[in-house]
Amino acid sequence: MSRKAGEPGASLAAPRDLPIVPRNTLGLRTAWDTGIHMSGAQRDIKKVVLAYSGGLDTSVILKWLQETYGCEVVTFTADLGQGEELEPARKKAEMLGIKEIFIDDLREEFVRDFVFPMFRANALYEGVYLLGTSIARPLIAKRQIEIAALTGADAVSHGSTGKGNDQVRYEVSYGALNPDIKIIAPWREWDLTSRTKLIEFAEKHQIPVAKDKRGEAPFSVDANLLHTSSEGKALEDPSQEAPDFVYQRTVSPEDAPDKATFIEVGFEHGDASSIDGVKMSPATILTRLNELGGANGIGRLDLVENRYVGMKSRGIYETPGGTILLAAHRGIESITLDRGAMHLKDELMPRYAELIYNGFWFSPEREMLQALIDKSQEAVTGTVRLKLYKGNVSVVGRSSPYSLYSMAHVTFEDDAGAYDQKDAGGFIKLNALRLRLLAARNIRTKG
Asked: Topology of 222-337+379-399 in CATH?
């Protein structure tokens, strides 16, 4: 059942159109509705699919599930381009007696079906965050539900704490894809409330603990092909600058090359399709943009954000390729999108970004917005030239066979009759009419 990530069949050749249990349309209380209100002892769990990284937390969860529920555990590890060796996770799962181990290479699906659709919207949460963690969770949840159907599991589990956003993202997605699946959220059930207790539990059950986990970790990291996210410990005081060792994918802008790097990104219907004229797959494009952005110190963000659960948190994000991709996409849209379409997209974007941040990727409202966004991208095709230099990315050229830019209309030279400047007088007069009437009334009534 177990396969190496990246080799043929790493996704176990599971069809992507596995049947999903229909949504409950009768208003009945389902297992998903009631499960989150029941204690562990009350639920009869036979087999659970665990989102498993192989780290301390999920290894403890694995053993805890076996002890607490007496159930069979299936582990699922997603390769989303986090840059870590995944074989240790397999070996640790085998050591803990797991028979069904799924390690799936989802990099192409992640970028093609989740990252690219999000970037068509130019999505930014609270104006700056490129949603790198948020957009990964629905794909992991989707694959967990698929594996549950494939293996006959009646429950799924994750390692998210009760303080964060990820618990919401996972569980809302589970419910949208299978309303009858049971959900186990260990951090909301157990009494292992500190890292010391986790390590004691691991040592008691002979679970290997990495040496760097034996003390208080300086910060926690989530990574995938789109970004890295670092939170906690050394970063919890927002008044203090993040130490240099936090950054993993980008050089300091001060240490970036003194010579600018120029690249061209090609687009087809709103999605990046090539770099410097070379066609590439979605994941390959993002990987290459990460390399270019990281080498030039691009994509660092120090953010205090508003979590969906109500508190503020401070995070350090690195999104080198995504930062370049956003600038390039807006560049090609600037000459291919009509003003009305562009401005409407910009008005809807904060709502779209918030839906993704809060975990509602599979909601009907996100799908409705996606349909509108995708419609706008039909002519977003062409090439954007960008300059990368010491932490900055600038659009320095753009061209498209569908360009709406007309030099004949905007030139300061003779436009050969393309635009009659006298027309502007009536345009301005009509647009100012309501303001003139308002001013006249105010003068009249003040007198």
From this structure: Argininosuccinate synthetase, chain A, domain 2 (3.90.1260)
- The domain spans of the chain are 31-217, 222-337+379-399, 410-446
Structure tokens at 438: 């308002």
Give the residue-averaged pLDDT of 194-203.
Answer: 88
From the candidates 79, 105, 166, 222, which is the catalytic residue?
A: 166
pLDDT in tens, 117-129: 999 999 999 999 9
Contacts with 121 (C-beta within 8 Å, 6 or more apart), sequence order: 345, 348, 349, 352, 353, 369, 370, 373
User: Is 398 one of the annotated active-site residues of the chain?
Assistant: no
**Residue 150: helix, strand or coil by DSSP?**
helix
Q: Residue 123 is which amino acid?
A: A
Q: 3-state DSSP call for residue 141?
A: helix
How far is the C-alpha of 404 from the C-alpha of 269, rounded, in Å? 15
What would the CATH number be for the domain defined by 31-217? 3.40.50.620
Q: Which two tokens stand for residue 378?
A: 């039909």
Amino acid at 305: E
Partners of residue 300 on adjacent β-strands? 318
Where in 2-46 does DSSP place strands (E)? none
Task: Tell me the pLDDT band of 262, cut-offs 50, 70 and 90.
Answer: very high
How many CA atoms lie within 13 Å of 186's alpha carbon, on the beta-carbon side? 24
Instruction: Tell whether the model's pLDDT for residue 373 goes beyond 50.
Output: yes
Decide if 220 is catalytic.
yes
Comparison of pLDDT for 412 and 316, the residue scoring more: 316
Determine the pLDDT at residue 21.
39
Set 53, 57, 79, 271: catalytic member: 57
Instruction: List the Cα angle 165/168/173 in 5-degree steps.
Output: 130
Annotated catalytic residue within 44, 188, 220, 252:
220
3, 107, 120, 137: the catalytic one is 137
Predicted confidence (pLDDT) at residue 108 exceeds the cutoff of 90: yes
CB-based contact 42:119 (threshold 8 Å): no
Q: Which of 183, 141, 145 is nearest to 30 (CA)?
A: 183
Read off the amino acid at residue 350: P
Q: Tell me if residue 57 is catalytic.
A: yes
- Mean pLDDT, to the nearest integer, of 310-332? 97
pLDDT digits (tens, 9 = 90+) for 132-165: 999 999 999 999 999 999 999 999 999 999 999 9
